Amino acid sequence: MRKKKLLLCTLMMFLLVFNCFVSYAEGERVDPYEKMKADSYAKPIDTNKIKDWPQAPAVYADAAIVMDMDTGEVLMGKAIDEKHYPASITKLLTVLLTLENASLTDQVEFTQDSVSFLQSEDAHIGMRPGEKISMEDALYGILLASANEVSHAVAETVGKQYLGGDYHRFIERMNEKSQELGCVNSHWVNSYGLHNEEHYTCAYDMAKIASKVYSYEEFRHIMKKYEHKIGYTNLVKEERVFQQTHRMLNPYSEYYNEICTGGKTGYTEEAMNTLVTMAEKDGKRLVAVVLHDYGTEVYKDTEKMLKYGFDNFKKIPVEGEETNGDIQRFVKKDASLLLPSNLDFSKLQKEIVLTDTGIRTGQVVYKYEGNEVGRFDVSLTEKGYRSLTQDNKEPATEKKEAEPIQTDHDKMIKTEVVFGILMVIIFIMVFVKIILVIKRRKQKKRR
Question: What is the pTM of this model?
Answer without folding.
Answer: 0.80
